[in-house]
Design goal:
alpha+beta, 11-stranded antiparallel sheet, TATA-Binding Protein, single chain
């Protein structure tokens, strides 16, 4: 079965954006001379048999870039070899169900993220292209919360924001020194107070890390990751917001 837009994962887009910020830079010589003279990413991926599922501009903190999503009817390991060859990059072996490459050259930054789908026979490829200037602007930490019309946890500092107009997708990540369970309970109460209804199962005294909500034609995912054991532990709060064309069923 050929892949369609329904296979695009919001988690995959989020993973690409977050991986881009933390991944080490790599340089591959004259890669971008070949990148330009052989056309765009669409042309090169078409030669591998990939199907384009999504494309458009995306905002990342203070910067912007172009995102493309492709479906490939091959397991990740095989698909990744073809992706590397098509783009003139040194082949690498995927680590588990994810593979990542970030190349900086000719004042351009290109990030490639391959994700293996659950059936193990298909791959999603997320690409992000930015100028070096826009990539640097994307590293600027937001000074204020930018996710409008959603509650903000009072004792938190924003660290990351991204939005994609075509899919009406927004992602905000912030940190707090408060305990994860307290944050979940307070955010859950705030969302319900704004008319959001839970659309994912949950136990009253054992809230899961990921909570999903619906309201009219909007959906919201709240993810709270407990603090680690590093010298300055901070709980991660991630909120994904998306508007849809039709009404979202809730129960």
């Amino acid at each position: 079965m050929k892949m369609s837009k329904s296979h695009i994962s919001l988690g995959g887009i989020s993973a690409l954006l977050l991986t881009l910020l933390i991944a080490p830079q790599s340089s591959t010589g004259r890669v971008f001379e070949r990148w330009r003279t052989t056309g765009g990413i669409r042309e090169r991926m078409a030669h591998t048999g990939a199907t384009e599922l999504l494309s458009g501009n995306i905002a990342i903190n203070d910067g912007s870039g172009t995102v493309n999503v492709f479906g490939i009817e091959e397991p990740l390991a095989k698909a990744w070899r073809g992706i590397m060859q098509a783009n003139g990059l040194t082949p690498s072996t995927p680590a588990g169900t994810m593979a990542f490459s970030r190349t900086v050259n000719n004042n351009m930054v290109v990030a490639l993220l391959g994700l293996q789908l659950p059936d193990r026979n298909r791959t999603l490829l997320f690409t992000l292209q930015q100028s070096a200037h826009e990539a640097e602007r994307s590293r600027n930490v937001p000074q204020t919360h930018r996710l409008n019309n959603l509650p903000v946890y009072h004792n938190s500092q924003p660290e990351f924001f991204a939005s994609h107009d075509e899919t009406r997708f927004k992602l905000e990540i912030s940190r707090s020194t408060d305990a994860a369970e307290i944050i979940r309970l307070k955010m859950d109460a705030s969302l319900r107070g704004q008319g959001w209804l839970r659309i994912s199962p949950a136990h009253e005294h054992n809230l899961p890390s990921l909570l999903a909500y619906g309201r009219e034609n909007e959906s919201c995912w709240l993810f709270v990751a407990p603090a680690g054991t590093q010298p300055a532990p901070a709980t991660t709060i991630a909120i994904i917001h998306k508007r849809s064309a039709g009404r979202i069923p809730v129960f």
